[in-house]
Amino acid sequence: MSKSGYKFDEVARSERYFTSYLLPLLLSHNDFTFLKFVIQKVFNEKLDHLKNDFEIVTELDPLRDGSVSNDTVKAKYKEFKRVAVPDLFLRWDSKILIIEAKFFTSPKKEELEDQIIAQKKAIDEVKSETKYRSITPKHIALTIQKISLRGFESYTWDEIISWAEESIRNKPTQIIYALDVLRNAVIRAKEEDKPGDRHWKKYSFDQILDQLPKFLREGKIYFAFSKGEAQLRAMKLPDLQNRSHYKVSDVQISDNWLTIDQLIKRYIEVKHNTENDAS
């Protein structure tokens, strides 16, 4: 059903809007009250003894960011390039929480696990050069629907909203605003995840090649790839061909949806290289 007279914050889809603006707005309010609450909930500890020393970093790139000022990290960045970028890095004194958040995407649990493992590896590579060398960070996922992961805890946006409502007292206008936008977005994300309302369908790689002209005619030019462009460019031919499925859509549902020409370009590159190696 077509909707008119809408506001932009009622249709916003970028995960960065939610993870880099709205959530940090809540976390940092009133001397980081909500950040303290979240860390105590996730670590399941009373941490009133910790110092008021805080960090909030969004879109953290551990190797790239550190490479500018540290020679050891610079060498590792040259070796590994861009490994993985967590959505949120939170620190309260000696407690570190690292969050990979999803909003209008529903990744397979294996893909989400792999993404968090890659983020952990990136931070482990540089940790000895940071002030956190003696701290063990905790990595979690933040998703619309509860998801069971191997080796990592998962929380939902509904839980975040509930915790904020519980812990932030005498809410000023900006906090009320942030919570209202998040509630609306969670409702939209859940509605879109209903099978009958989806804008996307799953296809194997061979099906994409076979139906590419049809996709182009119908405007189905987006595919979901939560690992990002850098990881797509690192994929080999078997990785592309053996992936269980690709979600294809005529709508760019979030920042994690790339254009299908990027997938085809990578296929042509690796196929050409494979054929050259064989000749």
Structural features, described:
With 279 residues, the protein is α+β, with helices and mostly antiparallel strands. It has helices at 15-43, 62-67, 71-80, 109-126, 157-167, 173-192, 205-218, 229-234, 237-242, 260-278, and strands at 54-58, 88-92, 95-101, 138-143, 153-156, 200-203, 222-224, 246-249, 257-259. The protein folds into two domains: 8-191, no CATH class; 199-278, no CATH class. The mean pLDDT is 90. Strand 2 (88-92) and strand 3 (95-101) form a beta hairpin. The longest helix has 29 residues, at 15-43. Helix 1 packs across helix 6. The chain is built from ten helices and nine strands. A five-stranded mixed β-sheet has the order 1-2-3-4-5, sandwiched between helices. A four-stranded antiparallel β-sheet has the order 6-8-7-9.
List keywords for this structure.
279 residues; alpha+beta; five-stranded mixed beta sheet; 10 helices; globular
> Which strand order does the major sheet show?
1-2-3-4-5
Strand content: 5-15%
Strand tally, please?
Answer: 9
Ranges with pLDDT <50 over ≥5 residues? none
**On the 0-100 scale, what is the average pLDDT?**
90
Largest sheet: 5 strands, mixed
Radius of gyration equals 21 Å
